[in-house]
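Sequence, please.
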């Protein structure tokens, strides 16, 4: 958040607090109901978001905090009903409402310390059992408070009731202990969250001090205590929900994006295989077409290491792309000066690589004054060399280092996966794939190592 955003947020908080304070001084019952509903809504939001996102965060301590806030929401709702604003409520009692609030804070403190312990020790818990435990603890506390508070008469302030005072500050001490422990870990907590944690500590102490010295359930001191309570909840929401879920959701979005790109790349690759199968069908070579389809099925089921394309698939994919180029008015020159691939892996993968390189070349020369594609297959001292040259426009220098990245294309949306597939195949074959581009032509060069070397290199790449 920039400076302008901070100033705006501070102004909104100050304005909202001023309005609530004015309502509290002139109509405390309305103020109390409004602030309690806000607090309950925050607790319910923390639970709902935290519980539903527990599989995304993959963090048990977050589910523990979510469970604690659900128990807190239950007890704070009963605290609001018992305050006396609703005469029809049978358990309405000035001391019961204080005990409900203290019980809610106890649930939060226990959940907070429990979550810290699980996080520090990296302990795995049964999240459903934890949720049930905190809900039953809240309901058990509500039952006990409802029965025990009936015997107590008028409101008794903390300063006149030592057990209640000890209860309040024991809970507050536990929360402050946990917060101070977090603040001593600067590596795992951002500076912004550390500021929010310090605000929580200050508002916790100030709010509980106000509640401890109040002599009745209304008045200025009680209004201040509730305002500090709302400030604490807002900061907790900011730290626990927004900050904690930011990275997991960003990671989830990145994973989904990569999955979509992978599916598009597989679709791009499959089209070339189907083109080859279609070529065999047109030649009435049913067995070879079936073999191509089996390769597609093997790719989808991760059994491709046991299936390969027909022996002449290398020639057929070049012939199919040559016919397609001629239909588009592209001059296609083919110089095959070396034997066809005979290695199992090369027979399986090179037709796909050549098909993608030729598709890329045809896209590159579209609209060129003299569209031309040259395919060369030669032997050299380094190994077997495949070159695909096109007369299209020059690849910008700033894009060349990223040319094999998925989705990188100047041809429009959902493009730019063919070269990524080529790079992947080159890595699997232990080969090198490079690009050289100038104003006259662009050439992609694949250098396959000598027989026997590609397998070792491919294993290292995998």
């Amino acid at each position: 958040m920039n400076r302008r955003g901070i100033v705006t947020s501070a102004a909104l908080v100050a304005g909202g607090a001023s309005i609530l304070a004015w309502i509290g001084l002139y109509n405390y019952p309305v103020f109390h109901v409004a602030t309690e509903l806000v607090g309950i809504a925050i607790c319910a939001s923390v639970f709902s978001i935290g519980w539903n996102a527990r599989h995304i965060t993959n963090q048990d301590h977050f589910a523990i905090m979510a469970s604690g806030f659900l128990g807190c929401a239950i007890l704070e709702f009963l605290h609001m009903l018992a305050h006396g604003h609703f005469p029809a409520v049978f358990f309405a009692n000035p001391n019961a409402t204080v005990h409900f609030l203290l019980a809610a804070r106890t649930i939060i403190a226990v959940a907070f310390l429990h979550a810290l312990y699980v996080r520090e020790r990296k302990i795995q818990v049964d999240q459903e059992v934890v949720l049930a435990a905190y809900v039953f603890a809240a309901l058990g506390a509500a039952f006990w408070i409802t029965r025990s508070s009936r015997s107590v008469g008028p409101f008794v302030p903390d300063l006149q009731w030592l057990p209640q005072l000890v209860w309040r500050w024991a809970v507050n001490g536990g929360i402050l202990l946990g917060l101070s422990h977090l603040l001593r870990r600067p590596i795992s907590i951002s500076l912004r969250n550390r500021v929010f944690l310090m605000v929580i500590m200050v508002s916790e102490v100030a709010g509980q001090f106000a509640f401890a010295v109040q002599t009745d359930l209304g008045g200025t001191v009680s209004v201040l205590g509730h305002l500090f309570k709302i400030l604490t909840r807002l900061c907790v929401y900011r730290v626990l929900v927004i900050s904690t879920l930011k990275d997991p959701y960003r990671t989830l979005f990145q994973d989904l994006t990569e999955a979509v790109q992978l599916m598009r790349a597989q679709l791009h690759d499959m089209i070339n295989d189907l083109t080859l199968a279609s070529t065999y069908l047109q030649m009435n070579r049913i067995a070879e077409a079936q073999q191509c389809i089996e390769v597609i099925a093997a790719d989808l089921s991760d059994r491709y290491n046991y299936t390969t394309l027909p022996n002449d698939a290398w020639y057929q994919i070049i012939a199919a792309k040559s016919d397609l180029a001629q239909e588009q008015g592209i001059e296609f020159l083919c110089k095959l000066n070396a034997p066809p691939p005979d290695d199992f892996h090369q027979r399986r993968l090179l037709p796909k690589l050549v098909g993608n390189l030729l598709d890329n070349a045809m896209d590159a020369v579209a609209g060129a004054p003299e569209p031309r594609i040259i395919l060369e297959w030669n032997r050299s001292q380094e190994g077997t060399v495949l070159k695909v040259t096109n007369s299209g426009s020059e690849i910008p220098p700033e894009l060349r280092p990223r040319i094999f990245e998925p989705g990188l294309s100047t041809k429009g949306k959902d493009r730019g996966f063919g070269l990524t597939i080529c790079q992947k195949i080159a890595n699997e074959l232990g080969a090198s794939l490079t690009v050289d581009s100038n104003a006259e032509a662009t050439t992609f060069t694949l250098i396959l190592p000598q027989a026997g070397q590609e397998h070792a290199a491919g294993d290292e790449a995998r």
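The CA atoms of residues 137 and 143 lie 10 Å apart.
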